[in-house]
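Subgroup meeting minutes
Present: P.N., E.W., G.H.
Scribe: E.W.

1. P.N. recapped why we're keeping a running log of single-chain structure predictions: easier to compare across weeks, and new members can see raw inputs and outputs side by side.
2. G.H. added today's entry (104 aa).
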Amino acid sequence: MEVAENLLRKSQVSIRYNSMTVPGPNGTVLMETHKTVGQQMVSFPHLFQTVLHIVQVVVSYFLMLIFMTYNGYLCIGVAAGAGTGYFLFSWKKAVVVDITEHCH
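Output recorded in log:
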């Protein structure tokens, strides 16, 4: 998914920082800064991501149909292929921790 992450980064056209006051403990006032990213709906990276998403959904449905034939060898092949693909390609995922994120 590195290609998708690079396309997402390229489609982000403007980054704005908005500060707002938040009431803190004991009547103090704190400042919070939020990052807002602007994106364009009609752009080449977004259209390319859309095409990649369509391809991914079609391939996923085909794999589901193959698995639902209940042929043991095909089921094992689909599961083994998914595991091998995860092992080979997901080790390089970037993990970004945003200290201002309060959702999790």
